């Protein structure tokens, strides 16, 4: 079991290392020179070359990479080229706001979709299943900005229940942001839930057809008990991975949805930074996203192991 | 990057990020209003007087995280400037110069020295009295190297800052290096708002000016608030306060308006689909700023085939601007006929060559470019770019010109495409006085000379015009300059478009033209 964890952790670190290189290279490949983008069009050639030197853009790429990754390992992501503030703190501020959305989304999506998935599985091929499956298929097919726009039209414009956009800046308090969190979270949850619903439905169907469920039923246990005590844990297992992947997907989906709602989160910061060619900020955000992805996957693997005795003992039997 | 050119630097984000999003949004929104294809946009907003008091909420596109309230800076938060500050002179609704902080101004006989008489009894928000020293300081600040003001390029060749004189507290004397009868018009630029003497270090945060509102709070690229300045020399503004919010995404801005979270979308040219939805809403409507956007298809005169003046002429004769206005603007604008001086400018001339595809074909044959094929770059930066490019493509077909429309990324459009690709779509705001316009965009070597056109005869004509003290004669010379640009220059100007501004139905007294916004008169009904 220990060696399994060690292997998975090692792979995670390797993945992170590779992604840091990819992030660095991708950012270098952005069209437009940083120095000209930051200084604007009126910049004299002298000013541009001075800034290039200051930003160490005249050094070879690998040197800059080592500088950057060395700092990042110590939590130092450098200074923003635009605001001049420390990248770490700034990214942290926006990340916190996004985490608020992510948290609400995950709560909505995971609980809601597992319940719906189980219902669909239990009522296989009957009307609740058809309804849930159709709706989740639609949710899966429609891009998140369309869902977001429809939600705004319904719940901000037609029925003024929620704000259509956030008018506060990144320093807004949780209390100020709270009313604006629901619609973005709902939009993300709709898209995200679809996958989980379908996965949970399939798992439930598989498990309910298995021998031990039949045995449990023959023992005379109530359906409720069979489902909660016997079927559910096994049904959740394959769903875990889908949930993990979807949580990681949130990082990308959030960027689009945050712009529709002008929500001061990490996605909005990323787009602004790409626009300004604020390289240290882009790199930090991309690296953090990679970490989120890797950690989510690792957590899913370890969680699966905790739920599945077979995986837990695999190292020992061979 | 200069917002004078594309105030839309702010909206770049909108375009870049919205990309697909706004497309989806407008598609949805159009769906909601039914399939009416004909534009049913109101031509006039509600008149009537606003109630005194109230807070106006304005959504604006942020310039950048490095935004400042220093008017001279290239990164100034444009929407605050006119509310917080005043200039010496401004542009009236008919295009003429009118007094702002200067009550009067006159040149010497040769237009080499200009004397401005400042209004008495004007105070800054911190209580200090305005004197000529402040005006002189402002000019020095604009021209100082470390300010890096875009307007410095226009003023530096003219003003000798060392020779600025302030004979008394309300007189400013500006000696020029070369005579210029149009000099005061160059001070209407929005980099030229007057700031207090010695304030350069703090002005970007304090925003202390003489304008109708004083600063309460300001966050770069974030929210801010200004409140009525009771002691404003022109009287108190109608409103009690204005709240500014920065919203980068265009569809997010219109959603905020539709949901009643804001009252006005500044600096936004709505696309037609969104405009129709906004106009159909109970809460909001559309105000038009007539001929506010000057659309251009610049040809780089340093790149083949546009180095040949016959090719440039053919490109202009080949297309019908009326067709472009009809298709790309759905009629909401005026055909430009390749004259960059807007119809509202007193110096505007109406003569131009007629659309003539046969003549265009003939010119191309003579230049050895029969069946010319060229790439025309556009992006989602502005909603009109691509329709304009397609309309041009369609119209130029008759002259045997094949246009390949290429869409480039919006966020690097002004660093990678503008002034780099031989043919592309772009726009400016109108509202530049004629001398500023020609000096900035058409004179040899100017930093915004987007066609890289260089013609000594044109430059000499400009020099003659600005030195001419006889108004009538000067106007003729600027007319000749326009003919020159139409016949020889690299810029095609298909049209001037109305800007479609989203406002709440509660807003009264909204008035905007060029770079002028009436902060004194604007207010709300039922505030």
Automatic annotation (TrEMBL), chain A:
Among Gene3D superfamilies, the record links this protein to:
MetI-like
Keywords annotated in UniProt? Cell membrane, Membrane, Transmembrane, Transmembrane helix, Transport
Query: Which one Pfam family would you cite for this protein?
Result: BPD_transp_1_N
Domain ABC transmembrane type-1: from-to ranges: 95-300
Membrane topology is: Multi-pass membrane protein
Q: SUPFAM superfamilies from the xrefs?
A: MetI-like
> Nucleotide-binding: is it a keyword of this entry?
no
Instruction: List where the protein spans the membrane.
Output: 99-123, 135-159, 179-197, 235-261, 281-308
Q: Which GO terms describe its cellular component?
A: plasma membrane
Annotated compartments: Cell membrane
Q: Can you supply a Gene Ontology BP term from the record? A: transmembrane transport
Report the principal subcellular site. membrane
Please state which protein family the record places this protein in: Belongs to the binding-protein-dependent transport system permease family.
Q: What is this protein called?
A: ABC transporter permease
Q: What is the lineage of its organism?
A: Bacteria, Bacillati, Actinomycetota, Actinomycetes, Kitasatosporales
From TrEMBL, chain B:
Q: Which GO terms describe its molecular function?
A: peptide transmembrane transporter activity
Which superkingdom heads the taxonomic lineage of this protein's source?
Bacteria
Localization annotation:
Cell envelope
Q: Where is the Solute-binding protein family domain?
A: 97-448
Which Pfam families does this one have? SBP_bac_5
Q: Does the keyword Transferase apply?
A: no
The family database entries (SUPFAM superfamilies) matched by this protein are listed as: Periplasmic binding protein-like II
- Which InterPro entries does this one have? Peptide/Ni-bd (IPR030678), SBP_5 (IPR039424), SBP_5_dom (IPR000914), TAT_signal (IPR006311)
Which biological processes are named by the entry's GO terms? peptide transport
Key words of the record:
Signal, Transport
Provide the family line.
Belongs to the bacterial solute-binding protein 5 family.
Protein name as it appears in the record: ABC transporter substrate-binding protein
List the source organism. Streptomyces liliifuscus
Q: What is the lineage of its organism?
A: Bacteria, Bacillati, Actinomycetota, Actinomycetes, Kitasatosporales
């Amino acid at each position: 079991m220990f060696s399994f964890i060690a292997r998975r952790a090692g792979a995670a670190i390797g993945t992170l290392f590779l992604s840091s290189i990819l992030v660095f290279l991708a950012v270098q490949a952005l069209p437009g020179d940083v120095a000209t983008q930051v200084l604007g069009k009126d910049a004299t050639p002298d000013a541009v070359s001075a800034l290039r030197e200051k930003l160490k853009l005249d050094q070879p790429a690998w040197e800059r990479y080592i500088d950057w990754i060395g700092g990042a390992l110590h939590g130092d992501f450098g200074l923003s080229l635009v605001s001049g503030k420390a990248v770490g703190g700034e990214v942290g501020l926006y990340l916190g706001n996004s985490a608020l959305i992510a948290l609400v989304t995950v709560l909505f999506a995971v609980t809601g979709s597992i319940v719906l998935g189980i219902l669909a599985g239990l009522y296989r091929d009957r009307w609740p299943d058809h309804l849930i499956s159709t709706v989740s298929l639609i949710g899966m097919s429609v891009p998140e900005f369309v869902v977001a726009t429809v939600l705004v039209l319904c719940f901000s414009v037609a029925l003024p229940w929620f704000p259509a956009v956030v008018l506060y800046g990144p320093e807004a308090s949780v209390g100020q942001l709270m009313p604006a969190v629901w619609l973005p979270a709902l939009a993300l949850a709709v898209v995200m839930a679809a996958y989980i619903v379908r996965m949970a439905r399939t798992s439930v169907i598989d498990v309910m057809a298995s021998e031990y469920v039949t045995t449990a039923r023959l023992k005379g246990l109530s359906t409720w008990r069979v489902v909660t005590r016997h079927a559910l844990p096994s049904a959740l297992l394959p769903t875990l991975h889908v949930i993990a992947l979807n949580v990681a997907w949130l990082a990308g989906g959030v960027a689009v949805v945050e712009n529709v709602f002008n929500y001061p989160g990490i996605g909005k910061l990323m787009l602004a930074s790409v626009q300004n060619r604020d390289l240290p900020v882009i790199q930090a955000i991309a690296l953090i996203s990679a970490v989120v992805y890797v950690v989510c996957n690792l957590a899913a693997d370890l969680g699966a192991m905790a739920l599945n005795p077979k995986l837990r003992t695999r190292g020992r039997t061979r | 990057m200069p917002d004078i050119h594309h105030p839309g630097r702010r909206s770049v984000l909108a375009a870049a990020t919205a990309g697909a999003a706004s497309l989806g949004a407008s598609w949805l929104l159009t769906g909601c209003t039914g399939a009416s294809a004909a534009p049913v946009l109101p031509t006039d907003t509600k008149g009537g007087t606003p109630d005194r008091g109230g807070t106006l909420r304005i959504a604006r596109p942020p310039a950048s995280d490095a935004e400042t309230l220093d008017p001279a800076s290239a990164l100034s938060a444009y929407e605050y400037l006119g509310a917080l500050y005043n200039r010496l002179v401004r542009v009236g609704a008919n295009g003429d110069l009118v007094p702002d902080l200067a009550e009067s101004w006159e040149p010497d006989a040769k237009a080499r020295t200009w004397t401005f008489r400042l209004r008495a009894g004007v105070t800054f928000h911190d209580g200090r009295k305005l004197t000529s020293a402040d005006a002189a300081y402002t000019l020095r600040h604009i021209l100082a190297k470390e300010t890096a003001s875009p307007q410095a390029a226009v003023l530096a060749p003219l003003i000798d800052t060392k020779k600025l004189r302030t004979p008394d507290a309300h007189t400013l004397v500006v000696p020029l290096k070369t005579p210029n009868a149009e000099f005061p018009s160059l001070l209407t630029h929005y980099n030229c708002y007057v700031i207090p003497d010695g304030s350069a270090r703090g002005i970007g945060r304090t925003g202390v000016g003489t304008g109708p509102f004083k600063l309460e709070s300001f966050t770069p690229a974030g929210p801010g608030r200004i409140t009525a300045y009771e002691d404003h020399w022109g009287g108190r503004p109608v409103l009690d306060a204005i709240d500014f919010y920065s919203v980068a995404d265009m569809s997010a801005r219109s959603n905020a308006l539709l949901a009643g979270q804001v009252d006005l979308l500044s600096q936004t040219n709505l696309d037609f689909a969104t405009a129709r939805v906004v106009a159909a809403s109970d809460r909001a409507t559309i105000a038009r700023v007539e001929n506010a956007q000057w659309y251009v298809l610049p040809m780089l005169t340093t790149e083949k085939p546009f180095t040949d003046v016959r090719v440039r002429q053919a490109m202009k004769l080949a297309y019908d601007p009326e067709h472009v206005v009809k298709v790309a603007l759905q009629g909401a604008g005026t055909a430009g006929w390749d004259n960059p001086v807007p119809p509202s400018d007193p110096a505007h001339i109406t003569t131009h060559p007629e659309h003539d595809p046969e003549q265009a074909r003939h010119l191309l044959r003579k230049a050895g470019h029969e069946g010319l094929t060229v790439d025309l770059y556009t992006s989602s930066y502005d909603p009109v770019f691509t329709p304009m490019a397609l309309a041009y493509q369609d119209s130029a077909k008759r002259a045997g010109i094949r246009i390949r429309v290429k869409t480039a990324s919006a966020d690097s459009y002004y660093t990678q495409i503008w002034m780099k690709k031989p043919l592309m779509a772009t726009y400016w705001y109108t509202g530049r006085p004629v001398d500023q316009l020609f000096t900035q965009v058409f004179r040899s070597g100017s930093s915004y000379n987007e066609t890289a056109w260089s013609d000594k005869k044109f430059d000499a004509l400009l020099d003659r015009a600005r030195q001419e003290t006889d108004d009538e004669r000067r106007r003729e010379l600027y007319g000749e300059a326009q003919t020159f640009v139409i016949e020889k220059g690299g810029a095609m100007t298909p049209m001037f478009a109305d800007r479609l501004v989203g406002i709440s139905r509660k807003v009264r007294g909204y008035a905007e033209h060029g770079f002028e916004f009436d902060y004194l008169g604007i207010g709300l009904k039922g505030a």
